[in-house]
Design a protein that fits this description.
Elements lengths: L4 E7 L2 E8 L5 H12 L2 H10 L3 E3 L2 H13 L9 H10 L1 H8 L7 H7 L6 E3 L14 E6 L4 E6 L26 E7 L6 H9 L1
Parallel strand pairs: 1-5, 3-4
Antiparallel strand pairs: 1-2, 5-6, 6-7
Helix pairs in contact: 1-7, 4-5
Length: 201
């Protein structure tokens, strides 16, 4: 089901992951996948350990990537098999992120898969939370607050300055940024039924 969504991870007051998803963003799909992932203490701790070397992709990264693509003869953004091999060698994590056909929420598993790398740069889709007409659900894992937060789209009721995504509001759109509807302690997550109940209230 085409339910657009956003998965965010915050650590040391920095956004480390802001991953856009096209499908299955509702709580009974992506929400439960994330709940299951973080209900495993080993996953939670492993991810926390590698987050210091995770950062968002930026303009300088893009410039360097464009220069690399040009150097291997790719000028239209479409890679042939030989160019894909070279790209994968140069950018193993980014190759997996871009061409791996990741399922919703799988970006976290892929981060753990590539934890041996010195640096991990993730695609920045944070601003997608700004317009809740399009961003139907968002999930924020905040290690600073020790929280797993659920945000809902289609927000026309307004947003306050205390809201996480308030700085994204441009003051002109009828649809405000996504609004928080539930928050759970990372070290005391609910079972699936309680999670879905809280997300439906």
């Amino acid at each position: 089901m085409g339910t657009r969504n956003l998965t965010v991870v915050v650590h040391n007051q920095e956004v480390k992951v802001a991953c856009y998803g096209q499908f299955d963003g509702q709580p009974d799909s992506l929400g439960l996948k994330l709940l299951k992932f973080f209900s495993n203490p080993e996953n939670t701790e492993k991810l926390k350990e590698i987050l210091p070397k995770v950062r968002l992709w930026n303009e300088q990264d893009q410039k360097q990537q464009d220069e690399f693509l040009e150097s291997i003869g790719c000028t239209n953004g479409i890679l042939n098999s030989r160019q894909k091999d070279k790209f994968k060698e140069k950018y193993p994590f980014r190759y997996r992120e871009r061409y791996g056909r990741l399922r919703e929420g799988q970006i976290l598993e892929v981060l753990l898969e590539f934890s041996h790398l010195d640096e991990l740069t993730t695609t920045d889709a944070y601003d997608f939370a700004s317009d809740s007409l399009f961003c139907e659900w968002a999930y924020v894992i905040d290690y600073d607050k020790n929280s797993f937060e659920v945000y809902k789209g289609f927000n026309t009721a307004g947003i306050s300055e205390e809201d996480r995504f308030f700085p994204l509001y441009d003051g002109e759109n009828d649809y405000y940024p996504v609004k928080i509807i539930a928050s759970f302690p990372l070290d005391d997550l609910p079972d699936e039924n309680e999670f879905l109940l809280q997300c439906s209230m």
